[in-house]
Design goal:
It is a single chain. The protein has a domain of 145 residues. It starts with 12 loop residues before the first helix and ends in an 11-residue tail after the last strand. The protein contains 7 helices and 4 strands. Strand 2 and strand 3 form a beta hairpin. It has a two-stranded antiparallel ribbon with strand order 1-4. The protein is mostly helical.
Length: 287
């Protein structure tokens, strides 16, 4: 898995924290002014390079060696110096942006520094406190990094799931539109074929076949319009209101008055079907 990106914080903050803690450590230890200034410049420069370029991993650790060394020189010999917090800043910075191997490396370096101070200056409770603080900082920041990774993976999985759902929905719509249009066209073609075959032998049946073909075509068109209106409603658009339904056995004649007549003989014929109202007027009437 690739390294996560550095935390999105203003880049001057981490080097400013290192420089401030180095200055506090040098002042507390009563270092010379020029020496203190040099240590602050080293800490600020190294931190600025790492933060400005958003380094991670071993490159970040190598770049922070100079600021960490400046902090150690400024605070050496006094476990009560609060400037040691600069090392914790460096440890947390690495743990937030780098993998376990790099975090283990920075913790080992800080532990070696504290052990060296303990051996050179003799037992002091402060060194154990700093060691515990270093371990806690590394663990907490590594845990926060892992949580950020999990959030990124969850967002990626949600995006993939949403794309899969959109693809599945497109396939479902394609199937439904195919069923709607295919059924209507099949029925229409059957009636048109019947009308063509009956044109010479049974002219009276031609009208009935053409009427049924027209009915099937209009029904398919209304189904398609209703499906499109439903999709628009799901997308947040205002759906088109459904056309009113005319009484059974009535159909439009195509006249300008939009008069509706029975398309299948007598009004009581069992083969009559409900018809949609005229799309242009939205109403129907008997002759």
């Amino acid at each position: 898995m690739s390294e996560p990106s550095a935390p999105r914080v203003p880049w001057p903050l981490p080097p400013a924290a290192l420089a401030l803690l180095t200055w506090v450590g040098a002042t507390t230890a009563s270092r010379a002014v020029l020496a203190s200034a040099a240590l602050v410049v080293v800490a600020a420069t190294g931190g600025a390079l790492a933060s400005r370029h958003r380094l991670v991993g071993w490159r970040l650790l190598a770049t922070l060696l100079a600021p960490a060394a400046a902090t150690i020189v400024a605070c050496a010999g006094d476990p009560r110096n609060v400037g040691w917090f600069g090392l914790l800043v460096a440890v947390g910075w690495v743990a937030l942006t780098s993998g376990p191997a790099v975090v283990g490396g920075v913790v080992a370096l800080v532990a070696a520094t504290l052990v060296a101070q303990l051996l050179l200056l003799g037992p002091a409770p402060g060194w154990v406190t700093w060691a515990v603080g270093t371990a806690f900082m590394a663990g907490a920041c590594a845990f926060a990094r892992r949580q950020r990774q999990l959030v990124d993976e969850l967002r990626s999985a949600q995006a993939e799931l949403a794309e899969w759902a959109r693809t599945d929905e497109r396939h479902r719509i394609a199937r439904e539109m195919h069923d709607l249009v295919g059924h209507g066209l099949t029925v229409t073609l059957l009636h048109l074929g019947s009308a063509r075959l009956a044109l010479e032998d049974d002219p009276a049946a031609v009208g009935a076949s053409l009427a049924e073909a027209e009915r099937a075509a209009r029904g398919s068109l209304e189904d398609v319009r209703d499906a499109v209106a439903t999709l628009r409603a799901e997308d947040g658009d205002t759906p088109r209101p459904p056309a009113p339904t005319c009484p059974r056995s009535w159909r439009p004649t195509g006249s300008r008055a939009h008069r509706w007549t029975c398309g299948c003989g007598a009004a009581s014929s069992p083969t009559c079907r409900p018809r949609a109202a005229s799309p242009s007027t939205g109403w129907c009437r008997s002759p």
